[in-house]
Amino acid sequence: MRLLLRWIIGAVSLYLTVLAAHTVGVSGLALRHGTDGAVAAFLVILALTLVNAILRPILKLLTLPLNCLTFGLFGFVINAFLFWLVGQLGLGFDVKGWVAPLFGSLVLSAVSGILNAFVVETGDSRKR
User: Fold this and answer.
1) What does the DSSP assignment read for 72-88?
2) Total-model pTM
3) In this predicted model, what pLDDT tens digit does every residue of 78-109 receive, in sequence order?
């Protein structure tokens, strides 16, 4: 049940990220509308989870000297690259340019973190 809840939170976070990008004028992030958009959001979150689980540790290890040199800030570039990579898979989520993936990865992380903390804390407090 918790996995499904996190998946729903991820899809909602992705939708809010795309809305935030259009609101502040960041072009290059697009998600299908309607029912196709909801399915696309779930597929994109699944792909993003798999890409982060498989490729991210490899990229972190390969770029470790550069990451140390930049005091960990190169991690933002890795996150943006993985976000862009998922956008290139043709799942109904388009990411173009270099500002959109950077903005998208930052906002998606922030929104999903806030939503996960809120939902997990609310769920944990009910058990007590």
Assistant:
1) TTHHHHHHHHHHHHHHT
2) 0.82
3) 999 999 999 999 888 888 888 999 999 999 99
CB distance 97 to 27 below 8 Å: yes
Instruction: Tell me the Cα Rg of the chain.
Output: 15
- Parse the chain into domains and list their residue ranges: 2-112
Beta bridge mates, 87? none
Phi, psi dihedrals of residue 30, rounded to the nearest 5°: -145, 140
Angle 4-115-21 from CA coordinates, rounded to 5° = 105
Tokens describing residue 36: 């196709």
